[in-house]
Design brief:
Distance between the termini: 35 Å
CATH class: Alpha Beta
Number of helices: 4
Mean pLDDT: 83
CATH topology: Double Stranded RNA Binding Domain
Low-confidence stretches: 123-138
Number of domains: 1
Strand content: 25-35%
Helix content: 25-40%
CATH architecture: 2-Layer Sandwich
Shape: globular
Oligomer: single chain
Largest sheet: 3 strands, antiparallel
Number of strands: 5
Structural class: alpha+beta
């Protein structure tokens, strides 16, 4: 798909958010950078709750549809946490997992690499990975 190819070549998502020891981006950041590149295309996001054993996972699907109706999709997964973070409202558990899964669905669709390659074992890349790796929503 030409639109996907064009977007993957031009999309630049900065890690502008700051965690305790790392920088990261979220799905909102990806969408903000993506929208000017869509032209007559659209991006659709959907979620599905999938129960595996005793665990609930959110499967998010990102679908890119170009002006001719051609589509490309990618899925991202996130497990709901077993315990809430301090101060988190119970109704936000699925929403937090959804946001994280959507980020990874978008990352997969648009070729956004969040972390250095795990096979690169140089001390510099390990240090950078520890400093900048996205630790997720919880």
């Amino acid at each position: 798909m030409k639109l996907l190819n064009d977007i993957q070549q031009k999309l630049d998502v900065k890690k502008s958010r700051q965690g305790p020891n790392y920088k990261y981006h979220n799905a909102e950041d990806v969408l903000k950078a993506l929208k000017p590149l869509l032209g007559d295309g659209v991006i659709l996001l959907s979620d599905e709750v999938v129960c595996v054993g005793a665990f609930n996972y959110i499967k998010a699907t990102a679908t890119l549809k170009d002006g001719s109706g051609e589509t490309e999709t990618s899925a991202g997964w996130s497990k709901e946490p077993l315990e809430m973070m301090r101060g988190m409202d119970q109704c936000k558990i699925s929403g937090t997992a959804s946001s994280y899964a959507r980020k990874y669905a978008l990352n997969g669709l648009f070729g956004i690499n969040d972390t250095p390659d795990a096979d690169d074992l140089t001390s510099e890349s390990t240090q950078n990975n520890n400093e900048t790796q996205d630790q997720g929503a919880w």
